[in-house]
Amino acid sequence: MKETSEAPLSESAEERIQENTWNDDAFDDFPSPAPQPEESLIGRFAYTSDRESVEKYLHLNQIFARKISGGVSLILCGVIPAILFDNDLGAAILMFFVAIGVGLLIKAGMDYQDVEKIEKQGFHLSGELICDLQDEYERFQKVFTARIVTGVGLIILGVGLMLILNGLFGEEEWHVITLFLCTAVGVGNFITAGIINGVYHKLLNIQD
Fold first, then answer.
1. How many alpha carbons fall within 13 Å on the CB side of residue 90?
2. Can you give the pLDDT at residue 4?
3. 73, exposed or middle or buried, with CB in 10 Å at 0-12, 13-18, 19+?
4. Which long-range contacts (CB under 8 A, 24 or more apart) does 46-54 make?
5. What is the pTM of this model?
6. Are 123 and 54 in contact (CB under 8 A)?
7. Tens digit of pLDDT for each residue in 6-63?
8. pLDDT > 50? residue 66
9. For residue range 126-170, what is the model confidence (pLDDT) as tens digits?
C-alpha cells in the first residue's frame, strides 16, 4: 500500500494560517456582550404628572388647610363669648361658633376626596418640574418657619398677657380671653404650615 504524502505548504500560506489563528485567539479574550432585556412597556409609557395636575393638588391642599385651621380656630374662639356672657346668650353664641367650625371640618373632609383621587394616580414628575418644586419648597421653608415661630410666640404671648392682667387687676375670668384669642391664631398657623409642608414632602418624596 502506498503511503500518501502531503505536499508541503508554501511559506506564504503558513504565514496566513498563523495570522488567522492569532486573530481568532485575540478575540477570545473579549467577552461577547450580554443580551439586553427588552424595554418594559410600563417604563416606556409610565404616567407623568403634568404641571397643571400638580398645581391643582397644591391648590386643593391649601384650601383644605384653610378650612381645617379655620374650623379649629372658630371652635376655640367660641369659648370667648361663653366667658363674657355667663348665661344662655353666651352658650348660644358658643354653639353658633362650634356649628360653623364643625361644618368647616366636615366640608374639608368631604372635599379631601378630590385630593385623594390625585394621590392615587401617583406622582412621576419630570426633572424640570422637580427642580421647580424644589425651589418652591425652599422658598416655603421661610414661610413655614415664620408661621411656626409666630404660632409659638402667640401662645406664649397669650399666657403672658393673661398673667399680667391677673397681676394688675386680680384674677378674672375674662382675662382668659387673651389666651384663647392668641391660641386660636397660633394653632391656625401650625395647622396651615404643617399641611402644606407635608404636601411638598409627598411630591418630592422627602423622608421625615
1. 11
2. 46
3. buried
4. 46/124, 47/121, 47/122, 47/124, 48/124, 48/125, 48/126, 49/121, 49/122, 49/123, 49/124, 49/125, 49/129, 51/129, 51/132, 53/118, 53/121, 54/123, 54/125, 54/129, 54/133, 54/203
5. 0.70
6. yes
7. 445 455 545 554 555 444 444 444 444 444 444 333 333 334 467 888 999 999 999 9
8. yes
9. 888 899 999 999 999 999 999 999 999 999 999 999 999 988 888
What's the CA gap between 28 and 25, in Å, rounded? 5
State the cell numbers at 79.
369659648
> What is the grid cell recorded at 141?
421653608
Answer for the pair 76, 180: CB distance below 8 angstroms, yes or no. Answer: yes
